[in-house]
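Re: beginner question about structure tokens

> Can someone show what the tokenized structure looks like for a real chain? I only ever see the sequence side.

Sure, here's an example I had lying around. Input first:
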Amino acid sequence: MSAAVITPATEEPIRNELAELQLDNGEDDKTPQLEAPVAKKNKKKKKKKKPAGEQQEEGISEAPDNGKVGENGEGAPEATNEEGAENTPGEGAPKKKKKKKKKNNAAKNTKPVQTDPPTIAIGDLFPDGDFPEGEICEYTDNNLWRTTSQEMKMKDYAFEEALRDARQAAEAHRTVRKYVQSWIKPGLTMTEICEKLEDCSRRMIKENGLEAGLAFPTGCSINHCAAHYTPNPGDKTVLMYDDVCKIDFGTHINGRIIDCAWTVHFNPKFDPLVNAAKAATNMGIKCAGIDARLNEIGEAIQEVMESYEVELGGKNYQVKCIRNLNGHSIEPYKIHAGKTVPIIKGGEAIKMEEGEFYAIETFGSTGKGLVHDDVDCSHYMKNFDIGHVPIRINKAKGLLNTINRQFGTLAFCKRWLERAGETKYLLALKHLCDLGIVNDYPPLVDQKGCYTAQMEHTIVLRPTCKEVISRGDDY
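And the corresponding structure tokens:
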């Protein structure tokens, strides 16, 4: 095909049509005709960007997609959304902080767990001071109103500090005796048993002078010896399979004493004897309470104790209460505070009172049921009510200073004096006893060949209830 030829006659109408097209597009002759499609292209890009930005309608630069900042200081919306999550403090940063706090709180709230053997002090196991309660026994009969009385609840709240100290000491006692029960066996010397027990007690109670420590020496009286025996230095006595051993030790915090004991035996033929002491002690605890009369408690204890019999060597023995051993009231730094809880019928009709601490303990025997002093004393205690007494012997003065500093009015033994650094102290100790400054407590024994058992708990008569502070899973 040949090309079309433009003549002067057809040139002018063509120019007029081109001018009309340019006017319709809103551009003059100088504007390049290729700019119109570019503008349309940019408009299409704007429409695509608007949904991605979502937040800004004004101030967005119409610059090309090169990520540069516009006149108002803001960049492209897409770049801001993609980088902000990582580089700017947005939603990501607080989430990381929250996770960190949760980890720290979990670490703080985790309570330490006791080791085996126990090495963590009870105070460190319960840093908030919220120590476990003992067994709570509600009052009955004439004291039933105390359980709901608001006045009694307020008095109970005021009693909380003394309870906290006693409960800490009781938890230490429970931990130690559980540990001792796991390893005590025939063949160990009594010295090994006592020293291992006392070392654990000192750790659990976190011994600190007179503020926290052991309340009295560990009693480990065997067979016919019912109480107040602990090995003196050099004692080689060994625990045997057919022995009946009374483990009696105490702990204290700020003078609040826990006095608690149980009987260790390995031969099952002694089960009735031990069960008799356990049942009698529980009866004493049951009968104790505000306004309870001490003589009535003793009568109930005797009735339970003497209902048991033990067969030894083909012969039956009635279990007898040791009538000259008793329970007792406890005051701060004073193990025997004045009131006695008999374990036989009779005695004074004195009443128990609100707020008092008591050691309810019973002793059963296959012998006469009467104890007397033996030789080789090991227990000593400073006279609580003694005033100033002049001392002429310098060695006795020095020994008394050690006693005041280490034990105060709490009981001690010869092993503990040597542990405190005392040497050649026997004459000085005897002199203090002769002056009445220190009292000696020899071992208490029934007739030879018989067997004795003991069980003991510490209770407190709170305004609203009775609490057996030393009660544990074992007894």
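Each token stands for a local structural state, so reading them left to right follows the chain. The mean pLDDT is 85.
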